[in-house]
Amino acid sequence: MIKFGVIGCGYWGPNLIRNFSRFDECFVKTVADLNEIKLKNIKKFYPHIEITRSADDIFQDVEIEGVIIASPVSLHYEFARLALLNNKHVLVEKPMTSSYVHAQELVELSRKKNKLLMVDHTFLYTGAVKKIKEIVSCGQIGEIQYFDSIRINLGLFQSDINVIWDLAPHDIAILLHIVNEEPYSVIATGISHTDNTIENIAYITLQYKSNKIAHLTSSWTSPVKIRKILIGGTNKMIVYDDIEPTEKVKVYDTGYTVVSDEEKHKILVDYRAGDVYSPKIDQTEALYGMADDFLNAIINGAEPVSNMECGLKVVKILEAAEKSIKNKGKEVVLNGDN
Ligand SMILES: NC(=O)c1ccc[n+]([C@@H]2O[C@H](COP(=O)([O-])OP(=O)(O)OC[C@H]3O[C@@H](n4cnc5c(N)ncnc54)[C@H](O)[C@@H]3O)[C@@H](O)[C@H]2O)c1
């Protein structure tokens, strides 16, 4: 039986505790949180779980093999570092850290200690994203030309991170998982409507060396909740609407052919709008799939889907986007010196 310690049982932590409690191979031994009320709530539902106000009790417990971190983002690095230093496997919530240097340091420490470091990019385990990956990988939609995502709602303003660090990790992780090419550069703009200069609306554009583009919209200030991703290929286009209760993914047999009329110096576009179909998607709870992946990686040494390299790349793009926002939309080359 693998014993886990969970740090942070606010909004997301209880979902992790619930899912890890479904496996025979493991159980949550201890939960740490500064908030007594939240700890008491956990005890009410899971009387066998030990509760503590100090995360250190988890790091010092030799019986605990893995630490699950669901604290505010600004604490991810320190908690993950201490867990690895105490020879524990680590599952950290998205984004892995709030700085690229810290994420790199954790990846190196994980290798040095030979302990697993995984990031919970939950969406990679949804039936919808798994199906989209399958459709794109088998070449059905052709060459990807654009990836356009909108993730907006009347969201909780965070005090330690801006809207891109809160919402865009989901879209960036999905993008990196689906598009088999690393973006070349980032251009981002954003605005803060509060006194603390923390942006609540942001637009990120990712440019590629090849003929594709990605655009992500993140906002905590929309009257409606939209979770939509459009992926355009040279043959077909996909619309993924996560708010839809059924038929979240639709594949459009839509496309166009461009013919240049050199004599008239004109571009002629021939449109094609064919059938639309909605594939059947796996309904398993994504968080259960993620927990299963973490366990399988610990027990069998399998490579998790949401591995630390993926977490590292997500942080790299977020940091570049933040830099671009602070420089009024200046292009930041991802592997450059800027
Ligand atoms: N994967 C997803 O879809 C998803 C969804 C929501 C949140 N998250 C992530 O989960 C993490 C937590 O988010 P949340 O919305 O649950 O936040 P939250 O503020 O509701 O919960 C954080 C908890 O951490 C506790 N905490 C703070 N400092 C602590 C300390 N020093 N020691 C122990 N506990 C401490 C707080 O008391 C609080 O209960 C964030 O990283 C967030 O990005 C992921």
Structural domain tally: 2
The level 1 CATH classification of the largest domain is Alpha Beta
Number of strands: 15
Q: What is the C-alpha radius of gyration, as a whole number of Å?
A: 21 Å
Structural class: alpha/beta
Order of helices and strands: EHEHEHEHEHEHEHEEEEEEEHHE
Bound molecules: nicotinamide-adenine-dinucleotide
The name of the CATH architecture of the largest domain is 2-Layer Sandwich
The number of helical elements comes to 9
Strand arrangement in the largest pleated sheet? 14-13-12-11-7-10-9-8-15
If you average the pLDDT, what whole number results? 96
Task: Kindly state the percentage of residues in helix.
Answer: 25-40%
Task: Describe the model.
The protein is of the alpha/beta class. The chain is globular, with a radius of gyration of 21 Å. The protein is built from 9 helices and 15 strands. Helix 1 (13-20) crosses helix 8. The chain has 2 domains: 2-120, NAD(P)-binding Rossmann-like Domain (Rossmann fold), CATH 3.40.50; 124-282 and 317-333, 2-Layer Sandwich (Dihydrodipicolinate Reductase, domain 2), CATH 3.30.360.10. The mean pLDDT is 96. Strand 12 (237-241) and strand 13 (249-261) form a beta hairpin. Bound molecules: nicotinamide-adenine-dinucleotide. Nicotinamide-adenine-dinucleotide binds at residues 7-13, 32-35, 38, 55, 70-73, 75, 93-94, 120, 122.
